[in-house]
Amino acid sequence: MRYSKARPRPGVYAVRSGKKALSLITGHTFISAKNEYVRKFINRLQKGNLHELKSHAGQYSFDRYLQFPYTVNMHGAPVEVIKECISGYVEAIHKKNKKKPRTYHDWCLYNFGKGYAKHFMFPYANKVWTVNPKRMTVDWIGKRIILPSLEQILEGALHKSDKLMNYITTFEYPVKDGMSSMISGLTKRTNKINYNKKVTNIDIKNKKITFQDGTSSYYEKVISTIALPDMLKIIPDAPSSVREAAKRLIHNSLLYVNIGVDRPNISKFQWIYFDGDEPFNRIHFPSNLSRHNAPKGASAINIEIAYSRFRPLHKERALDQTMKKLKSTGILKPSDKILFQNNIEQKYAYVIFDKYRQASVNIIRNFLWKHDIKTSGRFGEWDYLWMDQSIMSGKRAAEAVQEKR
Ligand SMILES: Cc1cc2nc3c(=O)[nH]c(=O)nc-3n(C[C@H](O)[C@H](O)[C@H](O)COP(=O)(O)OP(=O)(O)OC[C@H]3O[C@@H](n4cnc5c(N)ncnc54)[C@H](O)[C@@H]3O)c2cc1C
């Protein structure tokens, strides 16, 4: 089996770069693998290069920093906001026998009430997903958003606490080389990767793949991690019903701004969510995940700016605003020296779940599988998969291909 990568080197979104300050591209924070198979797989790649960390995330709202998740760490928020959140929550839990929510908008109101929805959940959802939460379904949520009890909410509003109630409370992270160590662990084990081999055409009748460099190759079965919308663009013989299904898939994109600063311990948090008028929705501090992620005396910042066809990116404006907001939110001090900066756009970042997603994905994947193409991974399954789930997706695809032989 050979692997073809569109990009010129392994794990291009996860590599280390920079001169004076190291900056890790994308806010890849955690390895959380409960599944035994994934655990072993990752341990084999990492060979003792992992350390365990307690998660310590922040929320910037109302011009101040709160501990994340804000639902159980409201102490310090404006009193009026706390009152609205708690009274809304109480109202919501008493209405629970009502119809189950179908949209994310209604799910927020159903589980958290008007206050949390208005002050925190809707503003953040609009920012990161780039669409109104009324358009989104709820099938991506799972355990990603914790549902606290009234007691936990009250406790967090009355006292300052560091409650570790999150979708992850502890996680593992590579001591050296960030997430690129995952990729180098993999690439060391095979010499069968062809770089710079972007697939530009798949002839499903003759089972022939053509690459951007003009070369081609015949296949028996294919496992593909190409994003489904891109996949349908390179299969000229796909029927119009399948093409139409692909057009209904929606996603957001991210502009990452990676900055190295000549000051250590720039934030006490590992990452922070922003729900206000900042252009960014989340900032990671890779140097708080491993001291090897920045040189001594420096810090690494990774900023995420979401955009999509629903909210296009105005790059220059976003970059300009980002630098201003880094200062007004206190992350950068006027005396800070920027040692390094790069900006990277990632076309497919998060799949947006709407009412068309599941049916469209089924149509596309069934069609492709009939032609011996198994799609896999986050954008091949068109799902909200974390890394461990993507690894399992690859395993499932390999097994399916073997079974069909
Ligand atoms: C901002 C962000 C933060 C995240 N943080 C975490 C985290 O902290 N922990 C976690 O577990 N998960 C995290 N994830 C999720 C994780 O990144 C994904 O689950 C994982 O990278 C998906 O792997 P994949 O192989 O399915 O897809 P990808 O990594 O996107 O790989 C797709 C591959 O397909 C190749 N390809 C695409 N088109 C072509 C073509 N035409 N021809 C040839 N090759 C092609 C590309 O070169 C690439 O190698 C995060 C995701 C994002 C966006």
Structural summary, described in words:
The structure is a single chain. This protein has 405 residues and is of the alpha+beta class. The protein has a domain at 57-167: protoporphyrinogen ix oxidase, domain 3, CATH 1.10.3110. It is 33% helix and 22% strand. It is built from 11 helices and 18 strands. It has helices spanning 36-46, 79-94, 104-129, 150-158, 180-187, 228-233, 240-247, 315-328, 357-370, 377-380, 387-403, and strands spanning 3-4, 16-17, 23-24, 50-54, 57-61, 64-67, 170-174, 193-194, 199-203, 208-211, 216-218, 222-224, 250-261, 271-274, 282-284, 299-307, 338-352, 373-375. A 7-stranded mixed sheet has the order 6-5-14-15-16-13-17, sandwiched between helices. Strand 10 (208-211) and strand 11 form a beta hairpin. Helix 1 (36-46) packs across helix 5 (180-187), helix 2 (79-94) runs antiparallel to helix 4 and helix 7 packs across helix 9 (357-370). Residues 4-7, 26-30, 198-199, 225-226, 230, 254, 304, 349, 377-379, 385-388, 390 line the site of flavin-adenine dinucleotide (FAD). Flavin-adenine dinucleotide (FAD) is lined by residues 4-7, 26-30, 198-199, 225-226, 230, 254, 304, 349, 377-379, 385-388, 390.
Tell me, what is the CATH class of the domain at 57-167? Mainly Alpha
What's the average pLDDT? 92
Shape: globular
What order do the helices and strands follow? EEEHEEEHHHEHEEEEEHHEEEEHEHEHH
Q: Main beta sheet, described?
A: 7 strands, mixed
- Runs with pLDDT <50, length 5+? none
Strand content: 15-25%
Find the structural class using helix and strand composition: alpha+beta
Bound molecules: flavin-adenine dinucleotide
Question: What is the terminal separation in angstroms?
Answer: 14 Å
* CATH fold name of the domain at 57-167: protoporphyrinogen ix oxidase, domain 3
Helix content: 25-40%
Count the strands?
18
Spatial strand sequence of the major β-sheet: 6-5-14-15-16-13-17
